[in-house]
C-alpha cells in the first residue's frame, strides 16, 4: 500500500493526488480485539517508516488496549460544548492539517455530539480519505445498516448507530477479527471487556452464546460475500474476453476435517461439523490411506463410522491414498478450495517431531492461506 518515505514525520512529504485507502477491522461483538489488531498493525507500519497517527481511540477502560497505543502519536480531541457540558470528539481538521500517511480511527459507526460538523464518524472518515490520507478503522457487524432488522431479531436489541452498506463495499480491505464465543465469554468474565459489575447482565443479554454464534456467522458470511463479489468483478475486468470460469472463483468458507484410525476422530468430526454449521459452510471429511498398511477390522470399522457420520452431517467423505499425509491433505484442500482445516492434536513424541518435523508445520508451509484448527480431544 505504501511507497517508502522518510522516517521522520517532520520531513517533507508530497502526497499523491489520490483518495486515501481504507481498511476496516470488523468483528462479531465488542471485545474480539479489533482495536488491538488495528493498533498492532499501526506499530508495524510505523517501524517500517510509515507516518502513523491515532485519530481517535476508544479504550473503554481496557488496560491492554491503552498499553498497545503507547508509542503512537495521538491527535488531541476537539472540545464541544453541549447542554452545559464540555464533551470531546475526533478532531478531523487537526488530522488533515497534520497530514499523516495513515490515521487510525476507532468505532466507525459512532454518532457525533450535536453541534459537530458532521453527524457520524464515518462521514468524518470520508473527509479524511478525500484528503488522500489512508485510514484504518473498526466496526462491529451489528452496525451494518442492512443487517439491522436481522440483528434485532437475533439479539432483541435495536442497534441505533449504523453505517451504510456501501462503506464496507467500498473499503479497499476488510479484515475479520474472529474469536470463538467461548473465548469472548472468558474475556468478559475476566473483566477485559466491561467492568465486573456489568458482566452477568451482559451474559444474560447481548453476550448470550446463541447471539454470539449467530453474529459470528453474520460477520464471516458478510465479508465472504463482499470479497467474493470483488473477486468476480476483478476477474470480469481482467478476462479480456477470454472464456473465464467465474463459478470457480469463490471465497465462501469450506471446512475439511482430517480423520485417522484413532477413535477420537469421531469427536473431531462432530466438532468440525459444528464449525461448518456456525459458518454455514459445506463440510468435507478426509481419510488418508497408507498404501503399504492394511487396516485392522476395528480400524476399518472406525473409518466406516466416520464416513457414515459425515454423511449424517450432510458432508462429503473423501478417501485418498498416499505416503505423505500433509501433501495429500494439501492436494485435497486446493482441489476443493478449502478455507478451514480441522485436525486433532498429534500424539507423536517430541523425539519423533525433531527427527521428522512437525506435521502441522509441514501442513502450514504447504497451505499458508488456510486457517488450521488444532482440536484437543479425549482419547477413549
Automatic annotation (TrEMBL):
Pfam families: KdpD (PF02702), Usp (PF00582). Residues 18-227 form the Signal transduction histidine kinase osmosensitive K+ channel sensor N-terminal domain. It comes from the Bacteria. Residues 253-368 form the UspA domain. InterPro entries: Histidine_kinase_KdpD, P-loop_NTPase, Rossmann-like_a/b/a_fold, Sig_transdc_His_kinase_KdpD_N, UspA. GO terms for cellular component: cytoplasm; plasma membrane. GO terms for molecular function: phosphorelay sensor kinase activity. Keywords: Kinase, Transferase, Two-component regulatory system. This is Sensor histidine kinase KdpD. It comes from Aerosakkonema funiforme FACHB-1375.
